[in-house]
Amino acid sequence: MQIARKLTFIAALAAALFLPNFAAAESATSTMKAIVIHEYGGPEVLKYEDVPRPEPKADQILIRVIAAGVNPVDGMIRSGMFAKDGNGAFPMVLGGDIAGVVERVGNKITKFKAGDPVFAYISLDSGGGYAQYAVVPEGDAAPKPKSLTYVEAGAVPIVALTAWQALIDTAKLNAGQTVLIHGGSGGVGSFAIQIAKARGAKVVATASIANQDLLKQLGTDVAVDYTKQKFEDVAKDVDVVLDSVGKDTLTRSYGVVKKGGIIVSLVARPNQSDLEKHGIRGVALSVEPNSGELAQIGKLIDEKKIRVIVSQTFPLSEAKKAQEQVASGHTRGKIVLKLAEEPK
């Protein structure tokens, strides 16, 4: 893996999800079910096993996981794409999206208490989300949106934060500007469209013919069927491009951005010479946990300005099937593992 690619969205997530918190778990007196890998490989290396239940540190909360989102990066980590010198920290639990109920809190926690419904993006120092319990720092979790089920909430954190940090934090998208969103029907794209519209921007988004209706339902102003149209024939002089495709799509995007505009890529580092040639900026995004932004996203969801798309759910024991479906690249919105019944 080239050093340059380590700054991309995927590599950032790989770092964020790489090491489960088994050190803390050693002191646990009980076990839990989790999806564990003991080696890199295909979906067959995913094992449904008993592992020690983690214990929260002073600045952590222990969450009983009701639902866990499944992201493309999970399969990439599983395959060994981000292995360091061929050595893995096994056993490893994957998964960065969770929604659940606070089970217990560390003695430095002030924002949450046992029984609180929350959702979170699990970061570097915490374990994976494909488990019945997970620990996260207080600053990585936010109250679950009241209008969402736990399954829906489990589909939100990573993709919504990625869209938010790409459009709001990085591109500084403002009302009246135009954004081109590649892969508009996917996890990140579906949130990006709605965040951009809530910001007052004009949205041009690409998807296959099967997902044109979804683009329009999400608020897209100009929907492009990439199987029949070249997006560069439709999108011209845009302020922002959000690219989750890369390769030829990224190369063709330089010419549609107006001078002074920006390309934010989730999968590759934009070429500096191409950026200079067109007088534009380019960034390879590294998403970070942010409870404040997650709370703002939750507010927009409860205000009905953002809706969450969950195409399928699987039980934890069928994580293999869930990852295979995500790897197909034809998923609307998100796929979620449902670990327990929704609390009443």
Series of secondary-structure elements, N-terminal to C-terminal: HHEEEHEEEEEHHEHEHEHEHEHEHEHE
Helix content: 25-40%
Overall 3D geometry? globular
Overall structural class, as computed from helix and strand content, comes to: alpha/beta
- Say what the CATH topology of the largest domain is: Quinone Oxidoreductase, Chain A, domain 1
What would you give as the CATH superfamily of the largest domain?
Medium-chain alcohol dehydrogenases, catalytic domain
Tally of distinct domains: 2
Overall number of strands: 16
Q: Low-confidence parts lasting 5 or more residues at pLDDT below 50? A: 1-28
Sheet having the most strands: 7 strands, mixed
CATH class of the largest domain: Alpha Beta
What does this structure look like?
- By secondary structure, the protein is of the alpha/beta class.
- The chain has two domains: 11-156 and 309-338, Alpha-Beta Complex (Quinone Oxidoreductase, Chain A, domain 1); 159-284, NAD(P)-binding Rossmann-like Domain (Rossmann fold).
- It is built from twelve helices and 16 strands.
- It has helices spanning 9-17, 22-25, 72-79, 150-154, 157-170, 187-198, 212-217, 231-234, 247-253, 272-278, 291-302, 319-327; strands spanning 31-37, 47-52, 60-70, 92-93, 97-105, 117-121, 133-137, 141-143, 178-181, 202-207, 222-225, 238-243, 257-265, 281-284, 310-315, 334-338.
- The strands form three sheets. Strands 3, 5, 6, 7, 8, 15 and 16 form a seven-stranded mixed sheet that branches. Strands 11-10-9-12-13-14 form a six-stranded parallel sheet, sandwiched between helices. A three-stranded antiparallel sheet has the order 2-1-4, with no helix packed on it.
- Strand 10, helix 7 (212-217) and strand 11 (222-225) form a beta-alpha-beta unit.
- Helix 1 crosses helix 3 and helix 5 crosses helix 6.
- The chain is globular.
- Residues 1-28 have low confidence and may be disordered.
